[in-house]
């Protein structure tokens, strides 16, 4: 191939390719790229959750999975036996004194960040013990209904397929799988979980590697939902791991709140402390522990009423609080289906998280270079 | 809430959160993040294309859309009238002397990078003219079958829904839509295109904002496919735009190859040159014009035989070459369906591209800082 004749070239340098334009706003920094990712996502997606009034077909569901977008099916589980039969007396009659795992915390804050000061925090897991189901349920109700209650908070929240394990006698009252999810995802549920608690318990902002169908049975759950592209907003940090322990009399079975202590994990002779990566930003207290990207977060909020179903897509951050029914109970069931790690979704979500962490590190380095103040001050600003 | 008693804390500083670990290999640079994105994608996905032997259901198709992964349906279009009826005589009898748009280039290189030197390049569009269909088809065949042929290359490749426009009389021989795609995507085809060329024509590496169903009718097409996460591999650059022009006698209708010139766009008085963002790396010549990420590319390769269908997912880079049937023709039809810009796919793919361009810019700046050689040398290494 001989070089063709070229007309109109004004200089040789004119034909040297330039960097391709990014189209980023601002100066075109990595910060701009991360910000534009989040704002472009919100420009292209509604800031409210889709509400369906009947269960989706497998194809309709798959369209939501493809977009990784949540929806709620109002009254989607209202024909389930659980919706019709479950109440305090029924649950007690079926489960009786079966021993169940109970998560106990002073303030309902299991698996959550405990801020000790503006710059110091722990990731604290609950004290776990075993109680007869009926005793645990009574405590949950008493905390809600008895003004004199001052003991620790109980939450039945083992997320280990407990509805086919500890609570197997209740499993008959719910479908063995969610048919549209099973068909679309070509998989049975990997875990089906039973949750029983009261309004004192909350679930801190976190994400799961599962496609999640969440069904409210008693009371209400209030979800705050953040899409995976908002990883740069949640200020994920490696936080020192600890576990609540019970310092009171071993004979006591009422777990006085003041007797609970926080025990740093791995504090023993020759043991190692561990740091758990966890979101430290709370979308309900957006000014605290924010990153420069937190302001671009646009949380979706949805309350599940009794009989409602929520599709909570894989890798969405969620923070959950709850309200009780008149019996002082909040009860839910959820189905976890394996996330599909193939395609580009998983790798791409990890990339967003990695880039956000690198950008935070870079920002801290710039800060360290330019600030000559005390280390404590730097950490305060940084964290 | 009073501060709880804490056991086992060895120092106050121990409770200051650390940066969360990225899990990146190497030192944890932006380069590492981009590399790990590409290698993680390939670890989680096959490096061969799925082969189906019957058309998918809408749900099966939607699973592929959700993963943004291609597949080929062998003989999926073998019952179409086009597969049974189309040949040179039939096409000529239906289209006759209807005027059609013809893309003319010296070497079959329409909408492609023309490398002038290791550091200089143009993005050259074809000379477009109108010919009677039967004349254009004859030229396409003659170039393939007549050893004495030395004229320019003709390609019927207008991608403007031409099968419902210029070639509407042939549209009766193909389905009005691909039912599984139409149902799954809840949309009719946005454009349906007819392609007729010979083995001289190639399509340079590029991507489209469409979900694409590509159907081979005559001859073969050879696709090289790169997923959107490989944007950092393709060395996208802003390349000076030009168009082939015909410098020969206006009376000639044979377009002698040597009479074609490259005319820089906007070279006239008061006009502006333009630079087109385009991939400058060729996966079939991987050593040339590579980025530091090109080595991690794992192109999928698939040849479509007559009657085969390809699902080419949105934003996949594709480079295409072709082989002719015994009549010297390569003919295909494709259906473009709108890409769903919602969810995180579009925003995330743009983010990968942006970060890759920023990383290349950073690399060039480091290079400029450390090299004191002549500018020409730098550009050579950079580009």
TrEMBL record, chains A, B:
Region annotation Disordered: where it falls in the sequence: 1-28
Superkingdom, natural source: Eukaryota
Taxonomy of the source species: Eukaryota, Fungi, Dikarya, Ascomycota, Pezizomycotina
Species of provenance: Paraphaeosphaeria minitans
Pfam family, one: Cupin_8
Protein name in the entry: JmjC domain-containing protein 7
Sequence ranges assigned to domain JmjC in this UniProt record: 163-352
Entry coiled-coil feature ranges: none
């Amino acid at each position: 191939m001989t070089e063709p004749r070229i007309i109109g070239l004004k200089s040789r340098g004119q034909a040297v390719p330039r960097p391709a334009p990014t189209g980023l706003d601002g100066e075109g920094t990595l910060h701009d790229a991360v910000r534009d990712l989040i704002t472009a996502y919100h420009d292209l997606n509604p800031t409210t959750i889709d509400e369906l009034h009947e269960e989706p077909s497998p194809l309709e569901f798959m369209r939501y999975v493809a977009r990784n977008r949540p929806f709620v099916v109002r009254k989607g589980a209202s024909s389930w036996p659980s919706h019709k039969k479950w109440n305090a007396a029924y649950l007690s009659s079926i489960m009786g004194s079966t021993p169940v795992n109970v998560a106990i915390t002073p303030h309902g804050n299991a698996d959550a960040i405990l801020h000790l000061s503006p710059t110091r925090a722990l990731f604290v897991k609950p004290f776990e013990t075993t109680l007869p189901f009926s005793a645990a349920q009574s405590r949950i109700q008493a905390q809600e209904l008895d003004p004199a209650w001052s003991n620790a908070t109980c939450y039945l929240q083992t997320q280990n397929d407990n509805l086919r394990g500890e609570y197997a006698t209740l499993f008959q009252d719910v479908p063995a799988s969610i048919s549209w999810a099973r068909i679309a995802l070509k998989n049975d549920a990997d875990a089906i979980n039973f949750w029983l608690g009261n309004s004192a318990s909350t679930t801190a902002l976190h994400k799961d590697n599962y496609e999640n169908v969440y069904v409210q049975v008693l009371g209400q759950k209030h979800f705050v939902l953040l899409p995976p592209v908002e990883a740069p907003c949640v200020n994920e940090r490696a936080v020192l791991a600890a576990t609540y322990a019970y310092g009171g009399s071993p004979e006591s079975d009422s777990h006085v709140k003041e007797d609970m202590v926080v025990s740093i994990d791995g504090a023993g002779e020759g043991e190692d402390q561990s740091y758990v990566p966890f979101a430290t930003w709370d979308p309900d207290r957006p000014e605290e522990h924010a990153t420069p990207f937190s302001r671009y977060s646009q949380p979706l909020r949805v309350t599940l009423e009794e009989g409602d179903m929520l599709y909570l897509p894989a890798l969405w951050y969620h923070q959950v609080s709850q309200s009780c029914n008149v019996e002082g109970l909040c009860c839910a069931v959820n189905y976890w289906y394996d996330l599909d790690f193939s395609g580009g979704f998983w790798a791409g979500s990890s990339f967003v998280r990695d880039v956000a962490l690198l950008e935070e590190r870079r920002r801290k380095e710039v800060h360290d270079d330019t600030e000559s103040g005390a280390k404590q001050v730097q950490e305060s600003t940084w964290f």
